[in-house]
Design goal:
single chain; alpha/beta; Spore Coat Polysaccharide Biosynthesis Protein SpsA, Chain A; 2 domains; ten-stranded mixed beta sheet; 10 helices
Length: 328
């Protein structure tokens, strides 16, 4: 059977050695009830477990809706995403990585309906359940207010869960630096937010698994700062000429993260790393000096501690609650 000719939504599912989860991820996409055609592009980064076998089974079951592509060799998360993105044909693009899954059968329909009714929206996202697999605890992403935000808000903080995101495919080619970042999602959100507003739906319609093999989870403190800094640096440089106001906000956030990493080096007496990274930051921000490292703006620490206490309590209670989506 031939593939559908004009999909409205292209769902990208990049995967690597996810035999335990990939079947559920695929089923959560295939069970979507929509009034429009949907294609699922599964891009496998040369898995060495049963991921290939499972994906091929589903591709044979849904030959008109699933395109399964396997790299001949492992190319890494970012390059795998780039290759998958280039295959998209839909008006909209949604993301469901191989270890996550969607809840409910009307997720895509709800998001597309909103986007079709509001041409000013470039991105639609919703609440997500975070599932911490190490201890079976769970948390919900924040209930964002206001419901409609802009790239200026996003430049200050990434509040969009990748598995919840649906964006209008825009007429741009992915920049060369996309292969350099370790977290392509924030970069993509910012690139797409240049074309319109961001709308938030309050429904919880996806589960994001957090486990030891994810890029963020397997990274230590230093590596996490480096990941956050790299993506902001790339996007900041990208926007410098076309959107200098956005680049300025990203620059402020970059310096906040840079200070945090430099303080980390201080605490652990890593003087050589401190000096090397300080010199690098100064290539972009010449006025930044070592005396700025410990200059931290006043924050509501008491309120922050109280929120952390509440969050800890909720996480402990959440361990007793069943994980939704058991029938998918």
């Amino acid at each position: 059977m031939a593939m559908i000719n004009n999909p409205v939504v292209s769902v990208l599912m990049i995967c690597y050695n996810q035999e335990e989860y990939i079947g559920k991820a695929i089923r959560s996409v295939m069970r979507q009830k929509t009034t429009f055609p949907v294609e699922l592009i599964i891009h496998d980064d040369c898995s060495t477990d049963r991921t290939r076998e499972i994906c091929e089974e589903y591709a044979n079951l849904y030959p008109d809706r699933i395109r399964y592509v396997r790299n001949e060799k492992n190319v890494g998360l970012e390059e795998n995403f780039i290759r998958a993105y280039r295959l998209t044909r839909g008006k909209y693009i949604a993301i469901c990585e191989g270890d996550d899954y969607w809840l409910g059968r009307k997720k895509l329909q709800r998001q597309v309906d909103v986007m079709e009714a509001h041409s000013e929206y470039a991105i639609c996202f919703h609440r997500t359940l975070n599932y911490y697999m190490r201890d079976n605890s769970k948390s919900l992403t924040a209930y964002e207010r206001p419901a409609v935000t802009t790239i200026y808000d996003l430049a200050r903080k990434n509040y969009i869960s990748n598995v919840s995101c649906l964006y209008r495919k825009q007429p741009f080619d992915l920049p060369e630096w996309m292969s350099e970042v370790r977290t392509y999602d924030y970069a993509m959100h910012l690139l797409n937010a240049c074309y319109g507003k961001i709308v938030f739906l309050p429904q919880v319609m996806a589960v994001y698994r957090i486990h030891g093999r994810s890029v963020w989870s397997e990274s230590g403190t230093e590596k996490r700062y480096e990941i956050a800094l790299k993506v902001r640096e790339c996007v900041m440089r990208h926007f410098t000429d076309t959107h200098p106001d956005i680049a300025a906000i990203l620059g402020e956030k970059y310096l906040e993260n840079a200070k945090a990493l430099l303080r980390h080096y201080q605490r652990h007496e890593l003087s050589e790393k401190f000096d090397v990274f300080l010199a690098y930051v100064q290539t972009m921000f010449p006025d930044f000096t070592a005396t700025d490292v410990n200059n931290i703006s006043a924050q509501g620490n008491g309120k922050s501690l109280f929120r952390k206490f509440l969050s800890f309590g909720r996480r402990q209670v959440s361990k007793l609650l069943p994980l939704p989506g058991s029938r998918i």
